[in-house]
Amino acid sequence: MAYHRQPLDVLALPTWQALQQHRQAMQHFSMRDAFAGNPKRFEQFSLSGCGLFLDYSKNLASDETITLLMALAREVGLEQSIRAMFDGEKLNASEGRPALHTALRRPLGDKVLVDGVDVMPHVQRVLQQMTELVGRIHNGLWRGFTEKPITDVVNIGIGGSFLGPQLVSEALLPFAQRGVRCHYLANIDGSEFHELSAKLQAETTLFIVSSKSFGTLETLKNAQAARGWYLAQGGSEAELYRHFIAVSSNREAAVAFGIREENIFPMWDWVGGRYSLWSAIGLPIALSIGMSNFKELLAGAYSMDMHFKTAPFEQNMPVLLALLGIWYGNFWDAQSQAILPYDHYLRNITKHLQQLDMESNGKSVRQDGSPVSGSTGPVIWGGVGCNGQHAYHQLLHQGTGLIPADFIVPVVSFNPVADHHQWLYANCLSQSQALMLGKSREEAEAELRAKGMSEDDVQRLAPHKVIPGNRPSNTLVLERISPRRLGALVALYEHKVFTQSAIWGINAFDQWGVELGKELGKGVYSRMVGSEQSSAEDGSTQGLINYFRGRHRG
Ligand code: F6P
């Protein structure tokens, strides 16, 4: 049965209207004054759990803001929505499926029913299958066509079959087991294939064709290219099974490609691509860090699941982050959200959260097909600090729009070099501090006068030096990156995204918008290669096709 809750028009709710009035009252709210007036603001607006510490005190939020946002969550029935997700109700109504990525991290002995069937034995069986593969590769028992052990694993996949595994395997590099290097091949761009294959030897390389649908153009093209390269390097069709395995819910297509039944790791339609790193899609993670670390990752995510499910909303990290996001997006016209990890190992988190958030909540209609009445998911962008400080932070500080930022930073570095980590941490803090404090006209003028400038120069330069400040941010601190804490961190954002979708009444688990481009791509391709004579639907596209054809003829 499809998810039955009738989406509410959230804008018509009394609490929404109260929030609108409250927004007017907050027009002149000053974070500086709020801290000055309340020495306990940091303690009051921060919390810890699941190995993470969240400081949300640098927000345009008073006690009343939080009270009203919590009331909104209750008024929309968030508690029931959370229960419905964990219970496997078909929240992905347009595809008639539940969204049960949380089942992938549940402990042995739990039961999760989908259409009356307990899926947990399947989950456990795949974990066992992964354990066997990882053991054989790590112990040098899985050998290539020249009987040499596998040294390199290439994950061929895109979107959710790439971004989550890449984030985690690279973030947990300090936990990597010796012997296997992981690589990623995602784009259909031949240059990516060329650069990667140049570094590898076919006889010691294992390809994981990672595609839930086994129908994704980029992945299939790259898999074919990899097969051609393997054969050209001396591999044979008969030994292909030693070098190609698959993760897919489309077993037939994987077999048709030439992958042996026993080398196909199943996926289920109740796990969405961008929520799938916890499944066999996480094989490159497990191959890099080993199964016990992979299980730690699952345990961390599970601890966040339990926190999300049971903590009161006021102390619930995903709920707090989600409501603050709604506060800025729907009431302060913020259109984007910056994700700023201050850690080299977390450098890919922005890309993963981009897909997670934008593919989930980039929607304009509610579950029942009616148009949403306010804005939904923001643009997610950002990147690793301090690099961003010397690139785009200027816009965060002095641009015309309000851009809330999440800073993510560990306390302990894996690789201390002199006092670098102290400086990295200090920069993270000073950025959120600068966003909040800003610099007033008086401060700017006083600073320039102190440098001995003429009054004319002071007046000329002061406007450029003024920084509005009062710009919001959250800071998430991890004691140190570990599989468990990373699992909790990624699950935190999954639940944040879900909470927002539940409040807006949209489906976070489908992605119909990406289909049109794929469909049109076939027509464009046929016209480019000349197998289709009719003109493209529009002059611009046809003109660009002609340009390509002209260049390739010459
Ligand atoms: O095109 C979008 C998408 O469908 C994502 O949702 C998904 O993560 C990605 O493509 C890859 O899909 P698959 O794992 O089926 O190849």
Characterization of this structure:
The structure is a single chain. Among the domains are: 104-292, Glucose-6-phosphate isomerase like protein, domain 1 (Rossmann fold, 3-Layer(aba) Sandwich), CATH 3.40.50; 438-464, no CATH class; 513-550. It has 21 helices and 13 strands. The chain has helices at residues 14-25, 31-37, 41-44, 63-75, 78-86, 120-138, 163-171, 190-197, 217-232, 251-257, 283-289, 291-310, 317-331, 349-361, 393-398, 420-437, 441-450, 455-465, 483-504, 515-529, 539-553, and strands at 46-49, 52-55, 113-114, 117-118, 152-156, 181-185, 205-210, 244-248, 264-266, 336-341, 379-382, 405-410, 473-478. A six-stranded mixed sheet has the order 1-2-13-12-10-11, with helices on both faces. Strands 6-5-7-8-9 form a five-stranded parallel sheet, sandwiched between helices. The chain has a two-stranded antiparallel sheet with strand order 3-4. A hairpin with a 2-residue loop joins β1 and β2 (52-55). The structure holds 6-O-phosphono-beta-D-fructofuranose (F6P). 6-O-phosphono-beta-D-fructofuranose binds at residues 157-161, 211-213, 216, 219, 273-274, 359, 511, 514. Its main location: cytoplasm.
